[in-house]
Amino acid sequence: xxxESNTLRFLGFGGNTQESQMEVFQxxxxxxxxxxxxxxxxxxxxxxxxxxxxxxEFDIVALNxxxxxxxxxxxxxxxxxxxxxPNYTDNxxxxxxxxxxxxxxxxxxxxxxxxxxTGYAYNTELVDRELTSWEDIKADEFEGDLALLxxxxxxxxxCAVAIGxxxxxxxxxxxxxxxxxxxxxAQNANCFSYWSDGATSIQYLRQENATVCEAWxxxxxxxQEDGYDHIEYVMPEEGAMAWTDTLAIADGTENRETVHExxxxxxxxxxxxxxxxxxNYTIQVEDPPEEMTDLPDYAPVEDLAxxxxxxxxxxxxxxxxxxxxxxxx
Amino acid sequence: xxxxxxxxxxxxxxxxxxxxSFRIDEGDFVTLLGPSGCGKTTLLHMxxxxxEPTDGQVKLRGEDVTELAPEDRNIGMAFQxxxxxxxxxxxxxxxxxxxxxxxxxxxxxxxxQEFLELVDLPDHGDHFPDELSGGQQQRVSxxxxxxxxxxxxLLDEPLTGLDRVLREEMREWLMTLQRELGVTSLxxxxxxxxxxxxxxxxxxxxxxEKQQAAHPETIYEQPANEFVATFVxxxxxxxGTVTTVNDLPxxxxxxxxxxxxxxHDDGEDVSLFVRPEDVDVEPVSATADGGTTTVSQTxxxxxxxxxxxxxxxxxxxxxxxNLGNRTEVTVTLxxxxxxxxxxxxxxxxxxxxEVTVTFDPESVVVV
Amino acid sequence: xxxxxxxxxxxxxxxxxxxxSFRIDEGDFVTLLGPSGCGKTTLLHMxxxxxEPTDGQVKLRGEDVTELAPEDRNIGMAFQxxxxxxxxxxxxxxxxxxxxxxxxxxxxxxxxQEFLELVDLPDHGDHFPDELSGGQQQRVSxxxxxxxxxxxxLLDEPLTGLDRVLREEMREWLMTLQRELGVTSLxxxxxxxxxxxxxxxxxxxxxxEKQQAAHPETIYEQPANEFVATFVxxxxxxxGTVTTVNDLPxxxxxxxxxxxxxxHDDGEDVSLFVRPEDVDVEPVSATADGGTTTVSQTxxxxxxxxxxxxxxxxxxxxxxxNLGNRTEVTVTLxxxxxxxxxxxxxxxxxxxxEVTVTFDPESVVVV
Amino acid sequence: MSVTxxxxxxxxxxxxxxxxxxxxxxxxxxxxxxxxxLTSFTGQTFPAIPYDGISVQWYAELFADNQLLGALMxxxxxxxxxxxLSVAFGTAAAVGFVRAEFPYKQQLSTIMLLPMIISxxxxxxxxxxxxxxxxxxxxxxxxxxxxxxxxxxxxxxxxRSQLVTFDEDLxxxxxxxxxxxxxxxxxxxxxxxxxxxxxGFFISFVVSFGEFTATQFLISPGSSTxxxxxxxxxxxxxxxxxxxLSTVLVVIMVVAALLSRYFER
Amino acid sequence: MSFVVERSPxxxxxxxxxxxxxxxxxxxxxxxxxxxxxxxxxxxxxxxFGDGSLFEAYRRAMGGVYVDAFVRSFIxxxxxxxxxxxxxxxxxxxxxxxxxxxxxxxxxxxxxxWVAYIxxxxxxxxxxxxxxxxxxxxxxxxxxxxxxxxxxxxxxxYLPFAVLPIYNSLNAIHHETxxxxxxxxxxxxxxxxxxxxxxSTPGIVAAGVIVFILATGSFLGPAVLGGPNQAMIAxxxxxxxxxxxxxxxxxxxxxxxxxxxxxxxxxxNAVFNLQEALGNL
Lengths: 329, 367, 367, 265, 281
Ligand SMILES: Nc1ncnc2c1ncn2[C@@H]1O[C@H](COP(=O)(O)OP(=O)(O)OP(=O)(O)O)[C@@H](O)[C@H]1O
Ligand SMILES: Nc1ncnc2c1ncn2[C@@H]1O[C@H](COP(=O)(O)OP(=O)(O)OP(=O)(O)O)[C@@H](O)[C@H]1O
Ligand SMILES: [Mg+2]
Ligand SMILES: [Mg+2]
Known about the structure:
The complex is a heteropentamer, with 1 copy of chain A, 2 copies of chain B, 1 copy of chain D and 1 copy of chain E.
Chain A: E1 7-12, H1 15-30, E2 35-40, H2 44-53, E3 60-64, H3 65-74, E4 77-78, H4 86-91, E5 103-104, E6 107-108, E7 110-123, E8 146-149, H5 152-162, H6 167-170, H7 174-188, E9 191-195, H8 198-206, E10 212-216, H9 217-225, E11 231-234, E12 241-250, H10 256-266, H11 269-279, E13 282-283, H12 290-293, H13 309-312, H14 316-328
Parallel strand pairs in A: 1-2, 1-3, 8-9, 8-10
Antiparallel strand pairs in A: 3-12, 4-12, 5-6, 7-10, 7-11, 7-12, 7-13
Helix pairs in contact in A: 1-11, 2-3, 5-7, 5-14, 7-14
Chain B: E1 2-11, E2 14-24, E3 29-33, H1 40-48, E4 55-60, E5 63-64, E6 75-78, H2 90-100, H3 105-118, H4 134-146, E7 152-156, H5 164-181, E8 184-189, H6 192-198, E9 201-206, E10 209-214, H7 216-221, H8 226-231, E11 236-245, E12 248-252, E13 257-259, E14 269-274, E15 279-283, E16 311-322, E17 326-333, E18 338-344, E19 354-359, E20 365-366
Parallel strand pairs in B: 3-8, 3-9, 6-7, 7-8
Antiparallel strand pairs in B: 1-2, 1-4, 4-5, 9-10, 11-12, 11-14, 12-13, 14-20, 15-19, 16-17, 16-19, 17-18
Helix pairs in contact in B: 2-3, 2-4, 3-4
Chain D: H1 5-8, H2 12-39, H3 57-64, H4 66-99, H5 105-117, H6 120-134, H7 140-164, H8 168-176, H9 181-192, H10 194-210, H11 215-218, H12 226-236, H13 241-263
The complex binds adenosine-5'-triphosphate (2 copies) and magnesium ion (2 copies).
Pfam families (chains B, C): ABC_tran, TOBE_2
Domain ABC transporter (chains B, C): 2-232
Protein name (chains B, C): Molybdate/tungstate import ATP-binding protein WtpC
């Protein structure tokens, strides 16, 4: 079972982002004696659990910001030597390199890859006006036709944005949190279902289960490319929660040096632009090309508020339960 | 009471019951006798309405019920397998038919108790069927079939599967019950002792066809055909042609001659049957003029015994079966036939003995 | 050949087999006869090694095999249920024992074919057991038990469940086979006809205890005790005390007197048994001096018949059962006892007739 | 199948009504399967009913999808091995429980049923944490052991109910004919209870084959099973290859069932 | 030609030593080693050995959302069981007493088992969606994301497991008892009620218990077909483990759920003889 010495194992979320990533990895592998094998898992916890249960089996992982925070707590990540990845420091904007979840005790443990925002999408054939704000989804006409994201922290983040608050502050301020939760309850009123994976949000839109659905921009773009151009993505005027995907090195890898080499290759500018193009998401490169800035949820790192996972992670358990109560309100 | 006309049943290609007609009078006990697979159950099921006849008619109390569902015929039936409801107590089993026939709770209890006593199980009402012995189960099955006073009782081999002792006991008990209640009954069996000992009339069935319907004595003494003669009781059999010698009827077989009685046309081809209990066996050495056979009838030499009152044939003992109250001796006659004789128990006859087999012309059944 | 000593089996508290000993000589056919539940199967299983005796010893060919596993005893066994392997053809069933006894393929085929012919099923080798009739299955079961030439053949009620005709056929066939092969056999049954007609020796068992072991004729004519007398064949029974009148032995019962033969001590309490075939029934009106009963023996008045050579008792016919070859008449004597008599078939006797019952003192068994 | 004539004699109206109810139930039962089969022929990149023309492109994709075929392979290997283990342990336990007499027999036999009673989520979490402790590596060993635990109650129940009606005379006959107890089991007992063994194997197989809830905790890289693969794909969007795969399995199953009649005696 | 083994693969001395009790020990041992122990460890994990009460997690598990989820699970489980039994009974009855094509129809019953649950639930989702076949026909069915949808979905998924035991128990009914009932004066429906139904209780009980267990513990059904208000206990356990990453709470919930289920089944066992009934599977 054990990985052969000249195989690198990559663990990701699967799907389009994984395929895109694998394509770039493959370019590197074609010029080396290494092979890259991709595995995917169902969710963040599953991924972390898989690394734990299979020590030494994985070399490189793609995690989202939650996963990074959790991964650090579980100690499944190895530090990255940025000196060995010059392309990263050169091509990625400075502000994006030291986000809280990328650094542990002063050492970099994650390299930011793409990021996006969770806005919403709606079916223009069924809605005869333009939707622009988080307020719009609370309209009575959408009762039972709205689907939202089923993850407490993300959900509360968007609700905080909707009421003009910062989720990181809500973490410290019980009163503010109550306001956020009140907003979540208000949005819940129309909601017929919470989705926990991007595919389901798209499925709801496609099958017209949902008229309005909280969604990821890249997904909606892909759906439009499939001919569903009556589905419109909205970046609400109040803004939206930002999420991030990162690359990290799994603790216990026996191929530290090679992985660094691979990472360096990945962060070559050409490769990054290709990745962004394939994924339909922003990558925080210096001088982004026009195709990238045209993405519906494009925003430079300066304009984005990232979550402070050191505050939020300990609250996740509690929030998860509060959110569960919101659903049943 | 019950009248069956032209009843016929095909299972696909197979003709299971072939144009059977008969009638049963009020209060009679009639037996349907035939070998396994001859269509007895099929016939009974058609009468009960459990199977649809291909053709023919069933009349009960003069009314045509052929099209009626079984529950509307007011019939009682006891099944070979007892078919007691395993999830009900004895009492509930008996009460079932009463409930279905609209008896109210009080009548029901009274009737159940009466029948429990009638079948001699007054204290077994609260047992479940699987707690009873085979014979007890059969009695409950009968009580269940009779409790709601059906017009007719159908019994499908209710005694098969019981051992000999129990079977004889149940047989007596069943007859007593039937006479007491006076219920018209049609009893299905493949056991000739059952049929002969219990019935007012026996209907013999073979391969779906009715062979004979008569009083047991007639069935045994004057079988209508070879099937009836051999199926009901054992026999020694001869096939031959009738001739008349000295004004007395004689049947000439391939190798011997047998004296018979009665009016028969010369030249008629007949079969002869003699019951073993009508046949005597005597050791040759014991006959008056010791030495060899008393009467020699080999080849086609003129018969010497034909004119005498008694048929006597030499032979060799083949088998001796001691059955307790009697012994069955099988003798191979010199003329080739096999004769069966019953002797008193434990006779001084052994396999291989030379013997003379004798029987009265009166006892020969000519068919 | 087989010697069983003090064999005992407890199932928990229940004593199923109680200190039974007997021996079977080479080539003999011995029957173990007893009512249901008397421990026959238990005994057989202990001999086969299928159940462990609580006490006692089993010797085969002089060797103690009590501790041996069944597969090491070289025994053949036929089961009541046939126990044919349903997933194997007839041929494979018969070959099974041969395989386990290390016969090679060639010997096996030869032996299987020989036994298929022996049991008269040469063309049925490739059938599966459920494609055969009950009798055919029994024959295969026997072939399987015999093919590997076991030292002894154990048969556990192999004929139970077969219908009467088939049963008689199988019985003859089994005897022929056993004699042909000369294999020592122990046959278990609760059917007295089986036991009397087939065996060299009958061992009667009741409630786990051996009651009598003797030649069939002895068992029937001189039963060792009341159990044997009533279990083996039917009887009319009297209980009384021996006295001597006119130098002839007489048994005085509560209400009548019965003449017997043989040497008996005065004052001895005895039971008397008379077989129905030894009993005659005559209608009272048919006796020489018409009118009422010939002989009156009611109350404790002095017997008038005691001194005569024949016992004669008045009574009323209770039941008449026509069994084909004979009729069984049940008479309630005026003295209270119930007498059983066999008469020739279809007699002119009806229920309720006043009759006289007679039997020879010679035919009375005194126990 | 013999038919009870008394039921046959129901009026045509009743028969018609029963038939209608039956068709409705079958329709209900088979709706998902029908949808799956239909959508496997879509020309779209996601499962959709092919209203405008069918395409077999997803079957082509299926046979080119090494990851999915690999998962299928894993599923088969795991289902087969786990079912064999279940049949072995379930049968041993069933034989023991039917034949042996000992105190608290009834209560003890409930232990054999526990894995069926306890939700597989719990089993999955419990197993993976336990395996970590006792050094059973995830992947094949964990999957096979885990699945055999999840399916052993089915085998136990099936074999036990068949053994209750098993005629012990057959075993005794075999012993007297010279076979020892092991040989007897193999030649007589096993073939005769084979319907239960087969049914147990079949049920175990399909349960294992479709198990996701506990399985998600037990897999390792390279040993993902089809349901887990499907679930992983869920996050990013199911392609109709899954439907093509399901259709292929359904067809194989139906054909095998219909063919098996010709191989029976 | 059946295959016959002539020589034991197990040495004789071992054969002699293996008794039926050993076989029991083998089976129980296997389940104990890889099931009972892991579950016991889970129980240990559910206890709080850190600060606060030992039963901290249990106290939380008694809180609002979890109680709701427990209640919902048992209600859904019960309703699903009843619905499934009705469908399964009608189906099995037809197979046993009416149909001539038993094998084909039985095969169709088990066919869905070859399609992963999730895919089947998605099939139902698509079928009842506005763009599904019903929507195309202009039928508006507002079924999805309701309790009804979840229960129907579960009934659909577990129907095959209910048909088989009921089929077996109906098949075991002696046809003569049905004939007897008819002759005794009961019509067809009366016969079903009085004879067929009671005699098939073992099958019904077995089917009911299996479906109840499976349905109560469902995870995917409510996840795919249910809305925010249809979360069942398995979803809550998965959430606390996967999202909240609270193993202690997840374990506590698992322990409570198991205890409730076993208690329920034990109570049921007091009424029906479950061991016997389950033998009918
Ligand atoms: N449902 C059926 N379908 C086809 N053939 C049948 C059916 N029932 C009975 N038969 C055939 O019809 C013939 C008569 O069967 P039936 O059961 O009436 O015989 P029987 O006289 O009752 O026999 P037995 O004494 O063995 O009970 C047999 O050849 C039997 O195989
Ligand atoms: N395994 C057992 N455990 C307890 N009691 C048993 C067992 N086997 C038989 N018995 C009891 O032992 C007694 C003798 O049984 P056995 O089977 O030997 O009788 P049998 O003479 O063969 O009867 P049958 O003629 O009915 O076959 C019976 O009372 C029976 O109930
Ligand atoms: Mg019949
Ligand atoms: Mg016995």
